[in-house]
Amino acid sequence: MNISFLTLTPVIGVAGTALYTWYAGFSLWMPLLLVGMYLAVGMSICAGYHRFFSHKSYEAHPAVQVFYAIFGALAAQNSILWWSSSHRVHHSYVDKDWDPYNIKRGFWWAHILWIFYRNDERDETFENAKDLLQNRIVMWQHRWHKVILIVVGFGLPTLIGAAFGDPIAGLLWGGFLRIAVIHHTTFFVNSLAHMLGKPVFNAEVSARDNWMVALLTLGEGYHSFHHRFPADFRNGIRWYQWDPAKWWIAALRGVGLAEELKTTPMPQIEQARLRAALRLVEPRIASSAHPMAAEIRQRIDKAVEHIERAVMLWRQHADERAAGVSKSWKTTQRRARRYVRQSRRQWKDAMRLLGRLPQAA
Ligand SMILES: [Zn+2]
Ligand SMILES: [Zn+2]
């Protein structure tokens, strides 16, 4: 079933849509239908299946959960329960044998082949998803997701097409082509986001940060950050980083449909960044007997020390703030920020010296 579905949808979706449109004619509503459904379904996977159900990175209103359950089913990526359970295994065992989409088995395995070997019907206990077993919307969707996929996933675009006078074009653009696009953009998170880019926040695992992958995946391309801080509702943490899923979640909060958005404290993020960068340069410094290496080491130690102070002070400021100690938390926060800046300066100096360090023979 999986193999035929995953090979036929792109053939019908790409070649079928192209051929049909060639003969029957093109209208602007066709790509608009594709984009509209891509956004609704893609967001239900990224902000719904992934950031809400799998990682609990915020609280969502039941109406939003129902939206995710219905439009997420349209992605033809199995139920919320199954998807989230597999995804949690991916996070626990990333790059190891238990990782369902282990990148160590190659691009094609992580991208699509792993699905060919999964047996959806086998009895699973969903041990790692007890919270989801309690969720009535999740359990309802687990039972009906295939029916929703067929009735809504193919029926809705056909109806919209009929309203414009061409139901087959609706079915092809909004049904088959849209499924093929969503499949492969989601799969890129498991393949490309574990190959291309930099391990900015965690040098120990294969996850990478890459803005180009983020463009293809509604923001999921900042994957190094995500693997380091999976509970954060953002993947791209800077305001300018392309992450439509985080903007969507923030907009939901704006209209009162989401709350308790989880974010990682800034110094903790900086500490992770520093540790990952350090891991990458450490061998070069360790292998050098040059006197400058000792100075570099010293500056790096300072950078590490400052960032540790900043993390501590930030925690203290959060406690003070929660306790309502009005003035002092602001001072503590300022001190934490100062330590972050000092840590950055030391690190920059260390890296400048490292650039001048003669290569070990
Ligand atoms: Zn991953
Ligand atoms: Zn994840």
Topology:
Blueprint: H1 2-24, H2 29-54, E1 59-60, H3 62-73, H4 80-92, H5 107-116, H6 130-133, H7 136-163, H8 167-190, H9 211-216, H10 223-228, H11 244-254, E2 258-259, H12 266-286, H13 291-323, H14 326-356
Antiparallel strand pairs: 1-2
Helix pairs in contact: 1-8, 2-3, 2-4, 2-8, 3-7, 7-8, 12-13, 12-14, 13-14
One zinc ion (ZN) binds at residues 90, 194, 207, 223, 227.
Give structural notes.
- The protein has 361 residues and is mostly helical.
- Helix content is 69%, strand content 1%.
- The protein folds into two domains: 2-259, no CATH class; 266-356.
- The N and C termini lie far apart (57 Å).
Write down the domain tally: 2
How is the main sheet built?
Answer: 2 strands, antiparallel
| Overall average residue pLDDT | 92
What class would the helix/strand composition place it in? mainly alpha
Question: How are the strands of the largest sheet arranged?
Answer: 1-2
Secondary structure tally: strands: 2
Proportion in β-strands: under 5%
Bound molecules: zinc ion
- Termini separation: 57 Å
| Oligomeric state of the chains present here | single chain
| Count of DSSP-assigned helices | 14
Cα-based radius of gyration, to the nearest Å: 24 Å
CA-based shape: globular
Q: What is the percent of helical residues?
A: 55-70%
* H and E order: HHEHHHHHHHHHEHHH
